[in-house]
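> forwarded from #structure-qc
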């Protein structure tokens, strides 16, 4: 599996639209637009998983800095969660 991070999405983008855009470049295993857990609105980014690394890399090259709905999207290989710095704001629930 090759997982891509897609940023700068128009807030109206659906999972299906994301899947259709990337399916032009190979077999998409999943496409998900990330939504705010409270409001249910798009956060403007998502993830797309390809069955094949080669297809995922081809889609990354083809679609990075391309236009979608009047916005320039960024596409790059998604990093595992543990690679990102932890955001600890010191507050608790």
């Amino acid at each position: 599996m090759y997982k891509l991070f897609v940023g700068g999405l128009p807030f109206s983008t659906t999972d299906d639209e994301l899947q259709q855009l990337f399916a032009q470049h190979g077999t998409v295993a999943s496409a998900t637009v990330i939504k705010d857990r409270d409001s249910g609105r798009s956060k403007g980014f998502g993830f797309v998983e390809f069955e094949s690394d080669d297809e995922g890399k081809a889609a990354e090259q083809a679609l990075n800095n391309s236009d979608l709905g009047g916005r320039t999207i960024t596409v790059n290989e998604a990093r595992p969660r543990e690679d990102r710095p932890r955001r600890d704001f010191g507050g608790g629930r």
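QC bot note: The beta strands are 2-7, 28-35, 42-50, 66-68, 71-77. The domain at 2-78 is CATH 3.30.70.330 (Alpha-Beta Plaits).
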